Amino acid sequence: MPQSGSAIATLSEVSVDCAMNASAKIKTVDVAALKDVAARLRGKVIEMSHRAQTAHLASSLSCCDIVTAAYWHACRIGSDRPSDPMRDRFILSKGHAASTLYAALAFKGFYPIELLESFCKNGGLLAEHPPANLLPGVEAATGSLGHGLPIGIGMALAARLRGERNRVYALLSDGECNEGSVWEAAMFAAAQVLENVCVIVDYNKWQATARSNETLALAPLRDKWQAFGWDATEIDGHDIGALATLLANLPNGSGKPFAIIAHTVKGKGVSFMEDDNNWHYRAPTADEVVKAHKELGLI
Amino acid sequence: MRNAFADELTKLAKEDHRVVMLSGDIGNRLFDGFRVAHAERFFNCGVAEANMMGVAAGMAMSGLRPIAYTITPFVTTRCLEQIRVDVCYHEAPVIIVAVGAGLSYAGLGPTHHSCEDISFLRSIPNMVVICPGDAWEVRAALRAALGQDRPVYIRMGKKGEPLVHDGIPADFAIGRAITVEEGRDVCLLSTGNMLPETIEVAQQLKENGMSPKVVSFHTVKPLDDVCLEKAFKEFRLVATIEEHSLIGGLGGAVAEWVVDNAITPLKFLRFGTKDAFFKMSGEQKFAREQLGLTSRQIAGRILDALA
């Protein structure tokens, strides 16, 4: 894990900030419970990909820990009040990981878990990318990359104008950082001093057909976000406890929007999928689902 | 038109606290009044239109009524995907206001011309397209846009256009064309900044013994069915007049309407720009002349068609 030392250093700074920030509620992170949720999410998205024979499974798996830390620990979003104007917003800007979002929202009770069986079926509500104004809990229709952050910034500015304290999280893929609109948005958020905005980059080192750093020069990614006026840190994107702590501690006292460069593994959790980019498009067979569920400790 | 827009917006923002103004680093001093009165609701989004449109959508999804404003090509085709996905797909009530439509900025060259925007924007679901005919219609369009709850595109000229109305047209409604002059034999449907030119066309037709009706067909989407039905039923000749490509603009929309309604027009002429970039230097008047869009040229073609 590159620069894990600096990530740890930042984490200890965070706890100091956290202690100093009177408004931040310090909630103990139940790492074991979060790990259990993340494993079940992974099991579900593998099952969904198999049933629907859809692509992007590896992208969905790389962000399961981030999504779990957000929905089960950090974000104030209740399935009982999905339109509450005071809720935090979690935007899956990397919309191709829709199955992870769909499963998380179902697990959280935004709609029945059985609805997941209709994933990508004719006439269903769960298309391969999250839809607009159709499903409770889906904040924005994404799938075309580079859209989630600008939308989130608009939401954050609206909250600030109203004097509300809700926070906006946007989960981006590393490939998505190819899009110019991401960097337009980054500069704008910094100029607007939006400390209630947090970007998480699911840095799994792959985009659709190649290594992300061989496609466009993303590295050094943390430096880039910092140069664009953000507070930025790097973290093991599968360290669910550290993720939960960082995400919950927003605003983090830096006075800047916050970027978390989460180093992840594409296909995380299943040995024969990890870091193998064929799983950007491949869907698992029934046998592979069983194998994967065994590895995840689900059967 | 742009001064009327800035002035009306400043007033509306006072009445409606949901109104926020997003500028793509344009309108030097134009929004000083707005900025003094509503500093916290003015956002200079810089030369970053894709972000500006996404931000506007996010604001609209959170209950605000953002107005996104810059020069026509940059607030339309430059960020077309954000308009399509963030604004229209989400049915986010963003009001997109463009300055310098058509050939208003002729002298700046084709990068700053906009003769394709109506075509692009009207093909997107949930979008309303309004091209006000004068500064009073700009004010009316802005009020009408804020009075409903969906995406709207307002396509303005530049500044100093002749006034056609005496005040805000009382009967202004989205999708309902305004009759500026009654007539019996030729129906002139003008959209946007061609309205003053169209009134001159009518004058010249009258001098040749004709009785032209002049319509400010300000809303290109949705079309005014009643107005079109009457036009094609009661007039010997119907003409659409616009500073926009013949592909996909008002003329294109009306041609589609004619086919879809199984109407056989007696005579139907479409005046607009050619399918070509206008590369010569020169101001708007010169460009119109080169493209056959002066009142004299339009009236001439109409008279020929009826000869």
Largest sheet of chain A: 5 strands, parallel
Largest interface: A-B, 29 and 30 residues
Indicate the mean pLDDT of chain A.
92
- Please state roughly what percent of the residues of chain A sit in beta strands, choosing from under 5%, 5-15%, 15-25%, 25-35%, 35-45% or over 45%: 5-15%
Proportion in helices of chain A:
40-55%
What sort of overall outline of chain B do the alpha carbons produce when their principal axes are compared? globular
For the terminal residues of chain A, how far apart are their CA atoms? 30 Å
- Rounded to an integer in angstroms, the radius of gyration calculated over CA atoms of chain A is 18 Å
Task: List the secondary-structure elements of chain B in sequence, H or E.
Answer: HEHEHEHHEHEHEEEHEEHEHEHH
**SS class of chain A:** alpha/beta
**Beta strand % of chain B:** 15-25%
pLDDT under 50 segments of chain A (min length 5)? Answer: 1-24
Helix content of chain B: 25-40%
What this model shows, in words?
The complex is a heterodimer of chains A (299) and B (307). Chain A is 41% helix and 10% strand. Chain A has 299 residues and is an alpha/beta fold. In chain A, strands 1-2-3-5-4 form a 5-stranded parallel sheet, sandwiched between helices. The longest helix of chain A is centred in the N-terminal third of the chain and has 22 residues, at 31-52. In chain B, the strands form 2 sheets. In chain B, strands 2-1-3-4-6-5-10 form a 7-stranded mixed sheet, sandwiched between helices. Chain B has a 5-stranded mixed sheet with strand order 7-9-8-11-12, sandwiched between helices. Chain B starts with a helix and ends with a helix. Chain B is built from 12 helices and 12 strands. The chains are: A alpha/beta (299), B alpha/beta (307).
Record keyword descriptors for this entry.
heterodimer; A: 299 residues; 5-stranded parallel β-sheet; 10% strand; B: 307 residues; 5-stranded mixed β-sheet
